[in-house]
Amino acid sequence: MEILPKYGLLYSDESFEMVLCKPKILPLKSVTLEKLENMQKQAQEALKMQEQQQDTAD
């Protein structure tokens, strides 16, 4: 329940101003995408190693 005065001025001390926040920097690549790329790179390197071993065995 709000009670307003019958006489006098009604004022508020609060002033509303814009508050600037720090910008949130988003990564260009997501963590899961980086993990997938690393897995693919490791798989390609393992495949190259196997091919080199087969070439040297022949």
TrEMBL record:
Pfam families: BBIP10. GO terms for biological process: cilium assembly; receptor localization to non-motile cilium. InterPro entries: BBIP10. GO terms for cellular component: BBSome. This is BBSome-interacting protein 1. It comes from Geodia barretti (Barrett's horny sponge).
